[in-house]
Amino acid sequence: MRTLSPKLKQSSSKSSSKSSSKTSSKSSSKSSSKSSSKSSSKTSRSSSPCDNNVVYMDNNGTTLITESAKRAFMNWISCYNASTSSKFGQKTAKVMEDCSDYILSHCGTSTANHTILYTSGASESNCFAIRSCVKSFRRKMLQNGSDILPHVVVSALEHNATMACVKDLEDSKMIEVSYVYPTIYGNILANDVENAIKMNTCIVSIMFANNEIPIINNIKDIADVCHKHAKPLHTDAVQIFGKFKLNIEKLQIDMLSASAHKFYGPKGVGILILSNNLIEGYKLTAEINGSQQYGLRGGTENIPAIVSMTEALKHTFKNRHSKNSKLMSCRNLFLDYVSEKYSMVPYELYLTNNEHDDLELVSLGPPLKEKDKEQFILPNTVLISVCKNKGKPFCNIILRDYLEKRGIIVSIGSACNTNSEKSSHVLDAIKAPSVIKRGVIRISFGDNNTQSEVKQLCAEFINGIKNQCKDLD
Ligand code: PLP
Questions:
Q1: How far is the CA of 129 from the centre of ligand 1 (A)?
Q2: Confidence of residue 127 (pLDDT cuts 50, 70, 90)
Q3: Could you give the C-alpha distances from 332 to 325, 339, 367, 380, 422, in angstroms and in order?
Q4: Is the shortest distance between the CB of 259 and ligand 1 below 6 Å?
């Protein structure tokens, strides 16, 4: 795949939208500074949509923006259009270039080998990767007089955006799909990916880390099998981006999605990193048409969000190693505490055991404290199920609400599922029985959580269980 064609030359030609950008940025700079000073004098801190008093432990759902990322956003809230050829627009274009340089170097690469597209978030990035590869493969086939449909390989526990995208394309008879199922721990094996690849496969999309189960896939092994068959690999790296330095050159990733609001940046902005070989070899085209971003993603770029995202990444990555150790110690403190009160059973044992205690805590994902497995476990996430094996079944919604009333925010699954309160496709993919699904709680610690907050969680978690399981007392 990677030897298909020469490197894509970065086109720096900017389209002209001189007049419109001049007028709009001038007027907006005036009005925004006026209105922001007005509103800051009017709005008190208490009107913030975030309550600083809650113990927030749903960081896989979203993280809260850092002060420095907020400032960076506000600094660029009024700026000229990067596509204008005037020197004013060039300043904006330069800051975007600097952001790209920083993000790519953070990923062990540069514009010589990879291109960044700024998107509205990882949902868009995932959909772009899939749709664009499908379209280019289809075009190539038709040119060769073949009517063969493109084939897409995804794992069965991808994010909803990916799952819905392939379903939509499949329902429209535009692709055929193969789903790769995970092991009992939730990880995807390279061998299973290889078995799913077909001659007409146009893209393999396997997430780097899952948002519910704390699993990190061995993406290098997966990339190797994809390239052995000359197939491009896309990875949804949302949950790992910012937590670890990823070297996408070494990992041989062709496309990578990430989202700023998962690493303490603003919402509504993300990236898709594309290998230049892939853009050229596949002749990828836009999903949103327009002249910006090499003609691959039209629309005037959201500069304040892009600058703010880059600042968030810099901030998040400062002392990352010790931040990850702190996250792991939060996780271990919680597990040690609750396992003193109730028996803690790994998921695979729960499935094979015939004898169960009346109430057990079941941990999902790989064994959490084995040192050699740390590289395959998200340091901040615990997915645990309260399994009541006797009497009235346990309800995770009641426990979540119990904690929320006491100011502790956790999740009962993927952020996208919580409104519908349906069981998640991730739990379906690991074939979780309904007793596990009913009791599942996801705790995702963030860089700002403290040990005393974790102790508060432990105490209320146990109280919440006792409160619901009075019949077992
Ligand atoms: N992929 C994963 C693994 C996620 O957790 C999320 C967000 O929940 C997304 C993609 C979607 O990201 P965004 O909210 O930026 O569209």
A1: 14
A2: very high
A3: 10, 10, 12, 10, 29
A4: yes
